[in-house]
Amino acid sequence: MNPVLTIVLGITLLTVVGIAFGGTFLLRVGNGTVPANDLQKTFFRAGHAHAGVLVTLGLLVAVLTHVAGASPGWGTAGAVAVLLAAIFVPAGFFLSVLGPDPQRPGPMIASAWIGAATLVAGLVISGVSVLAAGLAAV
């Protein structure tokens, strides 16, 4: 496995601690300890869920491309793109509803769209590289 990707994966595993801490934040929002309006509650839940799912997907893509024998460069690029989406998408949800009582998402929602595009790019790169590795092995 590419050493840079190995380092990125190690860092990513450590970020799961932050995602778990985010779960405690959601519990405080849910029980009213942290004041939040309905929009904020919805976006905080979406941000937390996307963080967990996309980090898991990024780790899976990294391992899958490696095991399939995909090109190290393309496999790394695809996995890193998916992991970047795990930053951009939740950031868009969390940061777009900061403030005392937002009524609609702010401009930072663009980060979620950037993350969605990054996710699609990473999955296409990874899918094609795994497919190419499989075809080359036939």
Automatic annotation (TrEMBL):
The keyword Transmembrane helix applies. Keywords: Membrane, Transmembrane, Transmembrane helix. The chain crosses the membrane at residues 6-27, 48-68, 74-98, 110-137. This is Integral membrane protein.
